[in-house]
């Protein structure tokens, strides 16, 4: 069973039909929407400030979601995929985004709706990623627009597939 820990008088809120892997940790001021999946060794640590996650979000294996004490919050919209070993720290990820494996998104950055942050990219603090953009590199820079095919075949498919994968663990 996942570690769900109250802290400083605040208990995490887990939405209906959300899968939590046995080694996932959800701590403190965390609200997770419906139909989400939090995978093995993922950590959502709302100990110093709030973490808000929308519906149909998957936080994949080893990802870490955190904030700055009294200075940043983390907000993740609907239909977002956060890849294996990614880090989101005090940033806002709007709807229908994909954060690639090993990517890091730092405090007060905003990833606009329908965007992709490539694997192993570093989105610096206060960066604003335009909606529908692909950002890559260290530090991450805009490399192109997200195509309609990428929206369908990468962003939407990944979110949908992870809902399916989560259902296998509930059988």
Q: Residue ranges: pLDDT <50 for 5 or more in a row?
A: none
What is the SS-derived class?
Answer: mainly beta
Q: Give the rounded overall mean pLDDT.
A: 97
Number of strands: 20
Percent of residues in beta strands?
35-45%
Q: Shape, please?
A: globular
Number of helices: 1
State the end-to-end distance: 15 Å
Proportion in helices: 10-25%
Order of helices and strands: EEEEEEEEEEEEEEEEEEEEH
Alpha-carbon Rg, integer: 15 Å
Profile the largest sheet.
Answer: 12 strands, parallel
Short descriptors:
single chain, 171 residues, mainly beta, twelve-stranded parallel beta sheet, eight-stranded mixed beta sheet, 20 strands
Chain-wise SSE layout:
Blueprint: E1 3-5, E2 13-14, E3 19-20, E4 25-32, E5 37-38, E6 43-53, E7 58-59, E8 64-66, E9 74-76, E10 81-82, E11 87-89, E12 92-93, E13 98-99, E14 104-105, E15 110-111, E16 116-117, E17 122-123, E18 128-129, E19 133-136, E20 141-145, H1 148-169
Parallel strand pairs: 1-4, 2-4, 3-5, 4-6, 5-7, 6-8, 6-9, 7-10, 8-11, 9-12, 10-13, 11-14, 12-15, 13-16, 14-17, 15-18, 16-19
Antiparallel strand pairs: 19-20
Characterization of the model:
Helices cover 13% and strands 37% of the residues. By secondary structure, the chain is mainly beta. It starts with a strand and ends with a helix. The model has no long low-confidence stretch (mean pLDDT 97). It is built from one helix and 20 strands. The protein is globular and about 40 Å long.
């Amino acid at each position: 069973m996942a570690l769900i820990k109250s802290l400083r008088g605040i208990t995490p809120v887990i939405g209906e039909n959300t899968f939590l892997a046995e080694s996932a940790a959800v701590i403190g001021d965390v609200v997770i929407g419906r139909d989400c999946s939090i995978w093995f060794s993922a950590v959502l640590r709302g100990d110093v400030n709030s973490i808000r996650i929308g519906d149909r979000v998957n936080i994949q294996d080893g990802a870490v979601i955190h904030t700055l004490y009294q200075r940043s919050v983390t907000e993740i919209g609907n239909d977002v995929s956060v890849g294996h070993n990614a880090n989101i720290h005090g940033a806002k990820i709007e709807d229908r985004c994909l954060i690639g494996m090993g990517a890091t998104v730092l405090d007060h950055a905003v990833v606009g709706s329908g965007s992709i942050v490539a694997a192993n990219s570093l989105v610096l603090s206060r960066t604003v990623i335009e909606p529908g953009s692909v950002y890559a590199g260290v530090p991450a820079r805009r490399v192109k627009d997200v195509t309609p095919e990428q929206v369908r075949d990468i962003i939407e498919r990944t979110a949908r597939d992870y809902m399916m994968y989560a259902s296998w663990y509930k059988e």
